[in-house]
């Protein structure tokens, strides 16, 4: 048998074993993820289609190992125990990193304070957008713990929502987000007409936008 066919055959046998294991359901499936301790290291063992044993320390300090179904659990335990020193130093580094991130993160204002702040800011800009606001009146303002967006605009509910962390950004950047979201009432897209509308109210919006990207 050629090396290629042999490799293919091994792969087939392995795949069949894996399918049988998966089909086994119940007790076997329950073993797909196991909590184990070896060499004083608590870790999660996940059975995956990996060639070797993978061991990693996550940002939160937890330890995760993955190994193929055919690797005996005692072998994985020994593997982890032999690397206990490496795991402990990786955990220590992760803890230092977490502490540093914690210290660098600016304290967010209370939600009620953040809301009052954004409402006041929106009231300043509202007169310039009154004609395009739903119903022609001041939109509802909301502050949410958004992490992927600085703001959003809902035409349906007539609401402008802002990320709470926007309140710790430079005021020039906050004003830009307010104008950006107000402009969405007239242009619910990022078309050239939308950006032209933003530029009309805030000619220096590009510089302000950069303040958000620097963080
Ligand atoms: Zn937008």
The hetero molecules present are: zinc ion
CATH fold description of the largest domain: Zincin-like
Average pLDDT over all residues: 88
Cα-to-Cα separation, first versus last residue: 59 Å
* CATH architecture level-2 label of the largest domain: 2-Layer Sandwich
Task: Tell me how many strands there are.
Answer: 7
Portion in helices = 40-55%
Spans of 5+ residues with little confidence (pLDDT < 50)? 8-30
Describe the largest sheet. 4 strands, mixed
Order of helices and strands: HHEEEEHHHEEEHHH
- Compute the CA-based radius of gyration: 27 Å
Structural class: alpha/beta
How many domain regions?
Answer: 2
Number of helices: 8
Strand order within the widest beta sheet:
1-2-4-3
The 3D shape can be described as elongated
What does this protein look like?
By secondary structure, this protein is of the alpha/beta class. The protein has two domains: 77 residues, no CATH class; 103 residues, 2-Layer Sandwich (Zincin-like), CATH 3.30.2010. The protein contains eight helices and seven strands; from the N terminus they run ααββββαααβββααα. The chain binds zinc ion. The site of zinc ion has 3 residues, from loops. Zinc ion binds next to loops.
Topology:
Layout: H1 3-23, H2 26-30, E1 33-38, E2 41-47, E3 54-57, E4 63-67, H3 73-82, H4 84-104, H5 111-129, E5 140-144, E6 151-154, E7 159-163, H6 171-183, H7 192-201, H8 205-213
Parallel strand pairs: 2-4, 5-7
Antiparallel strand pairs: 1-2, 3-4, 6-7
Bound molecules: zinc ion (ZN).
Zinc ion binds next to loops.
């Amino acid at each position: 048998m050629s090396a290629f066919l042999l490799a293919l055959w091994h792969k087939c046998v392995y795949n069949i074993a894996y399918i049988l294991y998966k089909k086994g359901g119940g007790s076997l499936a329950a073993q797909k993820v196991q909590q184990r301790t070896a060499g004083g290291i608590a870790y999660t063992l996940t059975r995956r289609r990996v060639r070797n044993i993978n061991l990693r320390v996550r940002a939160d300090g937890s330890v995760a190992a993955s190994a193929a179904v055919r690797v005996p659990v005692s072998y994985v335990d020994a593997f982890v125990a032999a690397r206990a020193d490496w795991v402990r130093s990786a955990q220590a580094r992760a803890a230092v990193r977490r502490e540093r991130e914690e210290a660098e993160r600016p304290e967010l204002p209370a939600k009620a304070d953040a809301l009052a702040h954004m409402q006041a800011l929106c009231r300043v800009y509202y007169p310039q957008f009154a004609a395009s606001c739903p119903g022609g009146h001041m939109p509802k303002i909301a502050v949410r713990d958004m992490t992927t967006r600085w703001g959003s605009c809902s035409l349906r509910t007539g609401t402008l929502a802002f990320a709470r962390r926007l309140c710790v950004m430079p005021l020039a950047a906050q004003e830009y987000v307010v104008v950006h979201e107000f402009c969405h009432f007239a242009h619910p897209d990022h078309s050239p007409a939308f950006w032209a509308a933003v530029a009309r109210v805030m000619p220096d919006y590009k510089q302000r936008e950069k303040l958000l990207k620097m963080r």
